[in-house]
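Escalated from tier 1: adenosine-5'-triphosphate holo job.
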Amino acid sequence: MTTQDVPPTEAPPTGHHRAPSLVLVNTGDGKGKSTAAFGTALRAIARGWKVGVVQFLKSGEWKVGEEDVGRRLGIDWWALGDGFTWDSDDIDESEAIAREAWLSAKTRIGSDEYDLLILDEVTYPINWGWIDIEDVLSAIANRPSRLNLILTGRDAPTALIEVADTATEMKKMKHAFDQGVMARRGIDF
Ligand code: ATP
Ligand code: MG
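Tier 2 regenerated the structure:
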């Protein structure tokens, strides 16, 4: 909450420099982590950037609407996940698929073909120990200089926040789900 109740009169500080690329982390328990990432993808597309998305958890059965639109806009989209873990009868398979998704993401990161890569829901397999955080940190540190990265998911590890240029915590104030409202097509997926 801000106490400022008058328009700003001072110019913003000067002396900022241009960075070749940025690392963004969208975390927290509120809605908006993935949608903010996809909103940024629209900006990237508008500038003629090559954009890729790797979704670590969403399944083919529960395909998000933005995948179709993203593909139409020329985004390379990999929904390699096999759904939510609590739908999975074989947890080892989920782990194998998450590891596979990371190998694929790592290849894309090193390929120097992209200006923006979104690693959607990547924090979960990291926190479950399926993907080695050190491996992720080293891929981030050694990425091509033009490659911007957005990583999303709840409970982003501290080490990830530390390497991020911009980290945002979406804080839940209310969520319809808590009032018993189902996820809604067009709003939630
Ligand atoms: P979105 O994709 O809408 O930006 P998100 O990426 O911040 O959401 P996820 O944890 O990835 O959040 O949630 C996936 C799904 O769960 C989405 O349908 C989202 O709307 C919904 N959701 C997000 N936050 C909550 C919450 N606090 N409680 C219940 N459902 C949520
Ligand atoms: Mg999400």
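The longest strand covers residues 23-27.
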